[in-house]
Design brief:
single chain; 184 residues; three-stranded antiparallel β-sheet
Length: 184
């Protein structure tokens, strides 16, 4: 009876090792060019690269441009900015309101989140890294309430389209030994 117990113990250990090898060895690596790996890399990148309304404005900000005035006035109506007018020179001066401190100066309104990977180019070597250009669909997540107000949506039509539709974009990804990343 003892030889059978030893053999069944060895048999059980062998089966367990084989199952573990199959479970870990057959799973695609995190650096394989798969839609799942591309999605993870793109989503990770956009967690630190938000979608924003204003990129080159510092407050206080003064303008006479009618389009800028209309856009910034929508943020005044949302209580994110304060406005002082200079009627003699047709100028408006904007400062950040207390409610806008969290979003100023760029007024970011959300993050891209991949909904599907549509295609990718074959791997090519660029600057010593294997790269692929990935075409993907995304939606904007974590959109604050102020960005959904009718005034802000009307003043920033590109943002309105981005938060209400599924969008398509392309991005280049570098393959590393452990994953994919957006090159800087």
């Amino acid at each position: 009876m003892k030889p059978f117990i030893r053999r069944s113990g060895v048999f059980f250990a062998s089966i367990s090792a084989l199952a573990l090898t199959i479970a870990t060895g057959c799973a695609p690596s995190k650096s394989a060019p798969t839609p799942e790996n591309f999605s993870k890399a793109i989503n990770a990148y956009f967690l630190d690269h938000h979608e924003c309304l204003l990129s080159n404005i510092r407050f206080p900000y003064e303008t006479t441009d009618k389009t800028e005035t209309r856009q910034l006035d929508s943020l005044v109506k949302s209580l994110l900015l304060n406005k002082n007018e200079e009627p003699a020179i047709h100028s408006s001066r904007y400062t950040v309101a207390p409610a806008g401190q969290r979003y100023a100066p760029r007024f970011c309104y959300g993050n891209r989140e991949v909904t599907s990977i549509d295609s990718s180019t074959p791997l090519s070597v660029v600057n010593g890294f294997k790269q692929s250009t990935v075409t993907y669909h995304y939606t904007i997540t974590e959109v604050p309430v102020w960005a959904k107000t009718p005034e802000v949506l009307a003043a920033f039509p590109q943002m309105a389209q981005a938060i209400n539709d599924s969008n398509t974009a392309k991005i280049t990804l570098d393959q590393t030994t452990t994953s994919w990343q957006v090159p800087d």
